[in-house]
């Protein structure tokens, strides 16, 4: 009877170990409780810039900035942002399917502050290091596009 019970205990322990459960739930070598984490690793990707008129370098307000994964499919992978009075915008996404993304800038207000031609910018995160990661969070990659010039129409 003892042998059968010991066999079942070992079999159940092995099964639980394969499923990721551990018998050592009372701390670890650092003295802290172990973290319970579920899911998959993830990272955030951010891009920002300042949109200016090419003719006089003044900031352009009201330009729509979208982050897309494929230039032929302009469905944004995040909510679009609009430039503020200083011409700046900021976009971000989590775990894009490719590290090569595109920012599409479009003048949405017509001639209110001048008419500007749309612009597409390639954003490549391939060589941008991830910073600040911990646990399942791999960190953040951030790119500053600096001053972006848009041509008048």
Estimated helix fraction: 10-25%
**Terminal residue distance:** 88 Å
Radius of gyration: 25 Å
Order of helices and strands: HEEEEEEEE
**CATH 2nd-level architecture:** Sandwich
| CATH domain class | Mainly Beta
- Average residue pLDDT: 83
Q: Please count the beta strands (DSSP E, at least 2 residues each).
A: 8
Number of domains: 1
Largest sheet: 4 strands, mixed
Assess the beta-strand content as a share of residues: 35-45%
Biggest sheet strand order reads 4-1-8-7
Q: Which geometry do the CA atoms define? A: elongated
Spans with pLDDT under 50 lasting ≥5 residues? 23-36
Count of DSSP helices? 1
CATH fold topology? Immunoglobulin-like
Structural class, by secondary structure, is: mainly beta
Provide keyphrases for this structure:
four-stranded antiparallel sheet; mainly beta; 1 helix; Immunoglobulin-like; four-stranded mixed sheet; 153 residues; elongated
